[in-house]
Amino acid sequence: MRNRVWIKGMVLGMIVLMIGASTVQSISIIQLRSLEKNERDWSIQTIASSGLVGIDTSLALDPANNYPYISYYDATNGDLKLAKWTGSSWSIQTVDSTGDVGMYSSLKLDSNGNPCISYYDATNKDLKYAKWSASSWLIQTVDSTGDVGKYSSLALSASVNWPCISYYDYTNQRLKFANWIGYWEFTNFASGGNYGLYTSIAKDTYNEPCICYYDSTNGDLKYTQYHYSSHVWSYETVDSSGDVGQYTSIVVPSNNNIYII
């Protein structure tokens, strides 16, 4: 029996945000720095400020050097972009510019340090996935059945870097799950009500996907987990005190306790 702890607060060492004043928008990063043993300070940098940028950000750190990577939506151009800290400056790439793409991005780095991003294609109403491979971006349309891909959240398997994505199926108003096993395999969760918004996914040490999401019908924070031993999904209502469960984020550390903020 694995222990679970649910919390509503967490200390963050690095924060990405969009700052706006009238029509001027920019994406910034705030980092908590240790100055001396008992002193700390915030370092603030503007990463990009041309046009309306910095929507739907996602942050990952390179384990080799703790340099940050940030995926974000450039609303002025309708592009998915990636910013990377090189150690002295920010390098910005356009990941995908085909149509209006890049909302609801979720970023992870694989075990080789390659960025992988799930995101929404608003032109075609599809879920897409991009992975950096040596010298170029490999881009796939993951799901094109109806209006799918909003609120995407990405996790990678620890052993082979295979992606899995939780996301919202707007057409059927339910949570959906895509898992790469050499091809994309889908889980269509049961219909009934409107649920699956604001998804967040993580994997435990058993490589089992753990997903929290918002149940709009009941105003609840909910949780589901796949169990490989029994090949079933389990479900829990985490919090039903009022209208709760939007804008969540889940973390599962090595002790397999589950933290949701």
List strands and helices in order, with pairings.
Layout: E1 14-21, E2 24-36, E3 39-48, E4 53-61, E5 68-74, E6 79-85, E7 90-96, E8 101-109, E9 115-121, E10 126-133, E11 136-143, E12 148-156, E13 163-169, E14 174-180, E15 184-188, E16 195-203, E17 209-215, E18 220-227, E19 232-239, E20 250-251, E21 259-260
Antiparallel strand pairs: 1-2, 2-3, 4-5, 5-6, 6-7, 8-9, 9-10, 10-11, 12-13, 13-14, 14-15, 16-17, 17-18, 18-19, 20-21
Structure characteristics:
mainly beta; globular; Neuraminidase; four-stranded antiparallel β-sheet; 21 strands; about 260 residues
What's a concise summary of this model?
The protein has 261 residues and is mainly β.
Description of the molecule:
- The protein is mainly beta and 261 residues long.
- The chain has one domain (14-260): 6 Propeller (Neuraminidase).
- Helices cover 0% and strands 60% of the residues.
- It contains no helices and 21 strands.
- It has strands at 14-21, 24-36, 39-48, 53-61, 68-74, 79-85, 90-96, 101-109, 115-121, 126-133, 136-143, 148-156, 163-169, 174-180, 184-188, 195-203, 209-215, 220-227, 232-239, 250-251, 259-260.
- The strands form 6 sheets. It has a 4-stranded antiparallel sheet, with no helix packed on it.
- A hairpin with a 4-residue loop joins strand 5 and strand 6 (79-85).
- It is globular.
- The model is unreliable at 1-12 (pLDDT under 50).
